[in-house]
Amino acid sequence: MCLFIYTNILQLTVVIATVFAEMVENEVFKYYSNGEWKVSSSGKCVPVINPTTRKTQYKVQACNQEEVDNVIESARVAQKSWAKTPLWKRAELLHKVAAILKQHTKPIADCLVKEIAKPAKDAHTEVVRSGDLVSYCAEEGIRVLGKGNYLVSDSFPGNERTKYCLTSKIPLGVVLAIPPFNYPVNLAVSKIAPALIAGNSLVLKPPTQGAVAALHMMHCFHLAGFPKGLISCVTGKGSEIGDFLTMHPGINCISFTGGDTGIAISKKAGMVPLQMELGGKDACIILEDSDLDLAASNIVKGGFSYSGQRCTAVKVVLVIESIADTLVKKVNEKIEKLTVGPPEDNCDITPVVTECSANFIESLVMDAKQKGAKFCQEYRREGNLIWPLLLDCVRSDMRIAWEEPFGPVLPVIRIGSVEEAIRHCNASNFGLQGCIFTKDINKAILISDAMEMGTVQINSAPARGPDHFPFQGLKDSGIGSQGITNSINMMTKVKSTVINLPAPSYTMG
Fold first, then answer.
1. Is the pLDDT of residue 10 over 80?
2. pTM value > 0.85
3. CA-to-CA distance for 294 and 316, rounded, in angstroms?
4. Domain tally for the chain?
5. Is 277 assigned a catalytic role?
6. In percent, how much of the chain has pLDDT > 70?
7. Annotated catalytic residue within 277, 288, 362, 420
8. In this protein, which residues make up the domain named Aldehyde dehydrogenase (predicted)?
9. Cα 230 from Cα 242, distance rounded (Å)
């Protein structure tokens, strides 16, 4: 029996390796264009650095502007036919992709471990979650896009019933999707699936760290049998093809998740519809009557999962002074239990994605140290690996109070009142998410209303999911709203057809 199982696993591994072999030439992963895996004519490649070893793990093609042009033109042509494809057939193909994604969970998850140092269990979860998202999107697309609207003219004052207006949702055209390094598969499919079910074509520009996982994911769409040219994936340096992509006249919509680059994109995009999530400084407000054990658990989970490299991570704790000592003690006890090490070992804290990121985090820590923050743990760093650190007694003149570290470092600011906490939250240029811990739901709702955040969680850490919930940020945290239904609606436009009838004679009947 054991031999039978081992043989089947070995055969599956060989099949998957064979399937993915067409993606690689001379140890460099190809880009995907017009239904084919191609080598860039630039003759250049971009290294993907393993955050744990800090050595080159993979190489991807450095596409040039001419190749981007060709990809966008192929997408434009393919989209015209795809828009005429029956909705149920689009959904059928997406369901097929979801199944293939789950079949290929392991090789994709392995890439996430090596490219972005995501713990193995979390990498596996990301791929499975992505398959579920694609399936849900297929079903939701049928519900959302299968409905039209019907209006009559005499519902507006001064009009007779002489006009009947029928409205429907039609695709925008070519959608450009740019996901971030921390969820290069999940946040890619959260853009791809809504675009496709809505009748658009799509061009994916993955991040360098995470590019190979995204290419493996793209191969699942290839295996599902989508029309040639409908979906493409171009890799390369943002400095060489980034602006060319985002300012290209053939792009009809941009969905971007990332950092400050998004602000530059929004200024250059012109009249193109935008969907953007640009990060946050998610605050956690702890009131006197809160369950401190629950709050401490959520602070550690929210602040240190995937080493704090999430836009929805808890980025600052605002706690009422009278309970601060107790809360900090409980949080520190839980931090002590976190494991630190390589992602292959499923450690809680793994290396941050680049040396540049680690240096930035360290600069925030050193600034806080110089200005008198209390270190609850010894600051420790080895290469890209930074041990979890809680900074107590942080003041508003410290950079860590306002800047987003995107790492396993969490500041605690002691406050005298709820009003002070709200003022601190709203003074930030970010407005993604926040959370409140209290047993008084009435108070929680009032505080939520006062917080300038896209989403406020009550008695739970910030979180993006479930993936069909609305997800949006205010101020510098984003434009538009995400979540499956919102994304489908955003990637379509309303078209009206008006039937005009003769003026009534009032002689009938």
1. no
2. yes
3. 17
4. 2
5. yes
6. 95
7. 277
8. 39-496
9. 20
